[in-house]
Amino acid sequence: MPMNRIQFQPGMSLSQFLELYGTEEQCEAALQQTRWPDGFRCPRCGEQEHGLVYGRRHRRYQCRSCRHQTTVTAGTIMEATKLPLTKWFQAFYLVGDAKTGISSLSLMRKLGVNYRTAWLLHNKIMQAMSEREKTYVLRGKVQLDDAYLGGERNGGKPGRGSENKVPIIAAVSLDEAGHPIHVKVAKVETFSFAAIADWAQDALARGCEVIADGLACFRAVAEVGCTHQPVIVNGRHPKDLPDFRWINTVISNLKTSFSGTFHSLRFEKYAARYLGAFCYRFNRRFHLEEMTGRILRATCNCNARPERILRGAELAT
Ligand SMILES: [Zn+2]
Predict the structure, then answer these.
(1) Which residue intervals of 98-135 are DSSP H helices?
(2) Cα of 60 to ligand 1 centre, how many Å?
(3) Residues 63 and 44 sit within 8 Å (Cβ to Cβ)
(4) What is the pLDDT of residues 60-74, one digit of tens each?
(5) Which pairing describes strands 180-187 and 165-174: parallel, antiparallel, or unpaired?
(6) For the chain, which end, N or C, has fewer CB atoms within 10 Å of the first or last residue's CB respectively?
(7) Could you tell me the pLDDT band of residue 237, with boundaries at 50, 70 and 90?
(8) What are the pLDDT digits (tens) for 287-304?
(9) Which protein residues have their CB within 5 A of the ion that is ligand 1?
């Protein structure tokens, strides 16, 4: 099984993590290196000469030319953070290392912060991961399937009619040997032609060969120049068909992750961000040892988001 290569890779041990990012100075240096690989540049005027101002929390960089002050987190999703950088890095490590995801509650306990702080930290990191994922499209041969996630929240109606049950489209691209390359999973409003056409616009490159079951709405992939090869399931469970092997694995991993880790999650509101983070981890499954550094880069490249935007998730995604 090719999955063994993933399961048995060394990754980054806790001691390696602490050696690299154990102190505030190390974290700041790593952040500085990621944001300004060629040295500091004033975000206002581009000047490189600067002085340092020591404040209560984080050091400020003052431009020698225009006197503008900035911090190493300004302009990123970490902007104006009151937390030590070590907590952020510990969160990068824990979020990146958790194969089936980690809950905000678990993050709260592991980091020793309150729940609101853990929730925000977690959601900012997942937002950055999701935004990074959005820049990719699937190419070549793609398996596609529809599914529902969630629906078991306390107090909600059970079953298909539950308001917390979210329709999703999952897709996986395959290489020549039929092994999975990348996944994309997104929430859709409904399984309609228009919704699938919108999804395909964001998720598929032109010319994909899409393999899916006979659900009529999947014909919508033709709208973005892809071909659709319907596989008629004909009474057999799609799991039994080799054509759907990888997409079934992805959907089953997702269901395990969501029911085990995020059982009280408000799917209808936050699904997009959690799905983005799931795909981010899956798509980097061969690079576990680099995960902390990659998540750091994603958070540096993601703009600041106020809490009200993150909580009104539909606006932010
Ligand atoms: Zn300046």
Answers:
(1) 104-111, 115-134
(2) 13
(3) yes
(4) 999 999 999 999 999
(5) antiparallel
(6) N
(7) low
(8) 999 999 999 999 999 999
(9) 42, 44-45, 47, 63, 65-66, 68
